[in-house]
Amino acid sequence: MFHPITLIILVPLFAEFFLHTLADILNLRVLRDELPPAFKDVYDQERYQKSQEYLRVNTRFEWISSGTGLLCFLIFWFGKGFPFLDQWARSLHQGPILTGILFIGVLAIIKSLLSLPFKVYATFVIEERFGFNRATWRVFSLDMLKGALLGIALGVPLVAGILAFFQYAGAYAWLYCWIAVTLFMLGVTFVAPTWIMPIFNKFSPLEPGELRTAILSYARSIDFPLENIYVMDGSKRSGKSNAFFTGFGKHRRIVLFDTLIEQHTVSELVAILAHEMGHYKKRHILKTMISGVIQAGFLLFLLSFFISYQGLFDAFLMSQKSIYGGVVFFAILYAPVDLMIGLFVKAWSRMNEREADRFAIETTRDPRSFSTALKKLSVHNLSNLLPHPFYVFLHYSHPPILERIKVIETG
Ligand SMILES: [Zn+2]
C-alpha cells in the first residue's frame, strides 16, 4: 500500500500532467484556418499556416518530453534511486555538507543529461525546420559547457550555505537562509549584465545614429535616466527577436537583439522600448523582485517544518534521515504549491504587461507604430494568435497578441 505522503505527491503530479495536456488539446482545437482581420496587412496565408504547424509540432514535442520526464522520475523513485544514491554518497565519508552536495549534484546531473537530447532535438530539428535556428554545434556545445560551469559556480555555494544553516543554525535556520538567499538573488541580478550575460553573448553599445538619438530623446521626455543601450548578438543562436531590461542601479541597461533592429523601423523600436521603460517606471521590476523574495521566505519557512519529517523519508523509501534529503523531498512536495503561486504570478504579470502597453501608448502617442511592431514581432516569431483562454491562464505571462492590439488600436 502507498504511504499517505506518496499519494499527496503523486495525485497533484498526475493532476498537473492531466491539466497541461487538457490545455494543450483545447489550444490545438481552437486553431482556425482563416487569418484574423487585424493581421491581414502583416501575415500571408502561407506563413499563418506555418505558425499553426509550429504550434502543433511544439505541442507534440512537449508531450513527449514531459511524459518522458515524468516516467523517468517515477522509475527513479520507485526503483529506489534515492536510497541507492544516498548510500553511495554516504559511503564516501565526507561529512554532512559535502555528502549533501554530492547527493544533490548527482540528481542535477541526471536531470540535465535526461533533458540534453530534447534540447538537441528542439534546436537542431524543430527550430531548424522553421528557420529559426542559427546555432552551430560549436555554439550549442559551448553554451551547454558554460551553463554547467556557471551552475556549479553559483549552485554549489548556494546549496552548501542552505545545508549548513539547516545543519548547524537551529530553529532560526530558515531566517538566516532567507537573508542569505535574498543577498544571493540581489547579487546575481546586480552582476548579471556585466559578469554573467557576457559569458554567453556579446553586448556592444548602440552606435550613434538615428535610432540612438530617437531612443535617448524619448527617454528624456519621460524623465528616464538612460545611459546604456546595448545590442546583443541574439542572431548567434536564433532568428527570433526580443528586447529586455536588465540589472539595476549603475548597471541598469536596455538590451536590443540585433535581430530586432534588422526587422523594425526606428519608431517601432522606440515603441517597443517605451513598453520596456514602462515596466521600469511603473516599478514592475522592483515589485517582481520583492515578490520573489517573499516567495523564497515562504518556501524556506515551510521547509523548516518538513525538513526532518519522517513521512517524507518513508515516501521516498529512505532508511536514513538527512538535511539534504529533506531539502530535495520537500522541493518535490512543494512543486504543486509553486505551480499555484505561479498562476497568480502570471496573472499579475499579464496585468503589468497591460499597464506597460498603456504607458507606451500614452507617452509615445504613436499607437500605430506600437501595434505594427507587436504584429511584426508575432509574425516573425510565429506566435500563436488565438490561444485558448485556459492555456493562457496556465502558461501566458503576456496577454494574447490580439487582445493587446485591440486595446492599442481602440485606445
Ligand atoms: Zn513587457
Cα end-to-end separation: 60 Å
Distinct small molecules: zinc ion
Average pLDDT metric = 94
Share of helical residues: over 70%
Unreliable stretches covering 5 or more consecutive residues: none
Number of helices: 15
Number of strands: 4
- Rg from Cα: 24 Å
What is the topology, as strand order, of the major beta sheet? 1-2-4-3
Alpha-beta content class: mainly alpha
How would you characterize the largest beta sheet?
4 strands, mixed
Which H/E pattern describes the elements?
HHHHHHEHEEEHHHHHHHH
Which strand-content bin applies to the residues? under 5%
Taken from the alpha-carbon principal axes, the silhouette is globular
Describe this structure in words.
The structure is a single chain. It contains 15 helices and 4 strands. 24% of the residues are buried. Helices cover 73% and strands 4% of the residues. With 411 residues, the chain is mainly alpha-helical. Zinc ion binds next to α9 and α12.
Features:
mainly alpha; 73% helix; binds zinc ion
Map the helices and strands.
Blueprint: H1 4-29, H2 45-78, H3 81-91, H4 95-129, H5 137-168, H6 173-200, E1 203-205, H7 210-221, E2 229-232, E3 243-246, E4 253-257, H8 258-263, H9 266-281, H10 284-306, H11 310-315, H12 323-364, H13 367-380, H14 389-395, H15 401-410
Parallel strand pairs: 2-4
Antiparallel strand pairs: 1-2, 3-4
Helix pairs in contact: 1-2, 1-12, 1-14, 2-4, 3-4, 4-5, 4-12, 5-6, 6-10, 7-9, 9-12, 9-13, 10-12, 13-15
The structure holds zinc ion.
